[in-house]
Amino acid sequence: MEQVDAIVIGAGVVGLAIAARLSRHLSNVLVIDKNASFGEETSSRNSEVIHAGIYYPKNSLKAEFCVAGKQALYEYCQQRHIPHNNIGKLIVAQNADEEAYLQTTIEKAAANGVDDLSWVCAKDLRTMEPNLSASAALLSPSTGIVDVHSYMQSLLAEIEQNNGQFVARTEMERVECSDGDFVATLNCEGEELKLSSKYVINSAGLYCEQVAKRIDGLSEQFIPTLYWCRGHYFTYTGKSPFQQLIYPVPEANGVGLGIHGTLDLGGQLKFGPDTQYIDSLEYAVSPELRGKFVQAIKRYFPDIDAEKLQPAYSGIRPKLQAPGAPAEDFCVQGAAVHGVQGLVNLYGIESPGLTSSLAIAQRVAQQLGVESSE
Ligand SMILES: Cc1cc2nc3c(=O)[nH]c(=O)nc-3n(C[C@H](O)[C@H](O)[C@H](O)COP(=O)(O)OP(=O)(O)OC[C@H]3O[C@@H](n4cnc5c(N)ncnc54)[C@H](O)[C@@H]3O)c2cc1C
User: What is the extent of the structural domain holding 254?
Assistant: First the structure.
């Protein structure tokens, strides 16, 4: 039987970041994906925003990984010439209640180590963003955007430089434990392949719960229930009326950040994502959502031309938060919790998973004992 040091299940941005990190220490790291290429699911269906780390509860993994990951991602992009832009974002208030929310946000962000937010009054906003309507805003200068595909390509290059390998069209079917090692059964386009590995990392995104259930020896009590929550995007054709990213105050239920306006590196403005819990994997964007989008966007962009909004794409969040329940943190679960040495399962890696990817990778390497956690 062929032997590798580590198998990473899932070649999204997080799985690739983990494989790249492990490949710095292990000579034979394999990352597999059931699809024809890497990053075809949530990693290529998001806003491509490098988040600052503003909203997440103090001491949560989301706060810790987002702030550390943001710094690491900017450095990685610079070192490897990955297209990105530290463009900045405005969180806009419409009334006194929302201004009060922004005030508390300054403190919340500072508790996470994000102490660069500044208050922008209505007069300065008119100069900064003449098409924006708001009573006040917070400017987050460390928020940015990144070309996720280039970032994933760069991670893959690092894996291959370190003797690791990515194999597409290969689905993890079962993992068994045998004499301290794992034996993984893979389905490579209908052909069964068995591999032995010292480490297994389940970074299967929307399928992490399903994959975990195929790992023999992992007790069901440690496998959380996952919920899928779709977010739709509409592009705004023509020249963008905004210079930076525009966010309303987030949804009170903690499910999403509210329908916001983001720019990509080509200057294309898009609005979204909204939130809709779903039962089956379906990415279509119904044009009927336009009315709901116009209503939400009108609050901060009253001159919106509804005809310019075109259904674009959707992405699905792998959430640990059930509909109607409070927000949940990321879950990076190692042997200290589930007792299976050499195994790490990642659950609920929704936003800010892209921003957090390098920090998550470091934590996984530490949990496996491949790196020290100084
Ligand atoms: C609408 C939306 C907007 C977002 N915006 C942002 C943002 O602006 N900034 C930010 O930081 N984050 C954002 N995120 C979050 C970010 O996109 C995700 O956290 C990140 O892409 C997750 O990457 P991943 O590698 O964990 O998962 P994925 O990209 O889903 O990759 C998992 C991979 O596992 C593979 N797989 C599954 N099962 C198997 C199996 N049995 N065998 C082999 N392969 C398997 C899948 O094919 C898939 O490619 C957003 C998410 C959504 C949904």
Answer: 89-141+227-319
